[in-house]
Design goal:
It holds the Pfam family DUF6481. This protein is mainly α and 112 residues long. The chain has one domain. Helices cover 87% and strands 0% of the residues. It has helices spanning 9-29, 36-111. It starts with 8 loop residues before the first helix and ends with a helix.
């Protein structure tokens, strides 16, 4: 059974040449970099990029400030915990000293 599509080499070559010609026309009709419309598009893209960069910098600055605030709060909480622990240790030492003094006084009272 023969193929219904009987394109010969010359026909395929002509079709490829036509496709290439159309592609070249498409690129030739594309706006150039010096075209005012293209300049406007490029300027708009640049403005968007600058605005995006500014927003990113602002977000980063806010994140940095927030992180510093959180670190300061954590440091303050740690200092508070240490002060509470030192107060408990001091209270325990005072209670031990009172108990030691009471035993000492009781022993002296028994000896006398």
């Amino acid at each position: 059974m023969r193929h219904l599509n009987t394109n010969g080499f010359a026909e395929r070559r002509a079709a490829a040449a036509e496709a290439k010609r159309q592609l070249l026309e498409k690129f030739a009709s594309a706006p150039k970099a010096t075209d005012p419309e293209m300049q406007e598009r490029l300027a708009a893209r640049e403005a968007v990029a600058v605005a995006r960069k500014a927003r990113r910098a602002e977000r980063d600055a806010l994140k940095t400030i927030e992180n510093q605030r959180l670190l300061a709060e954590a440091a303050a909480a740690e200092i508070e915990k240490r002060k509470e622990a030192e107060a408990r240790v001091a209270a325990d030492e005072a209670a031990r000293k009172v108990e030691r003094d009471r035993r000492y006084a009781a022993r002296k009272a028994r000896q006398a």
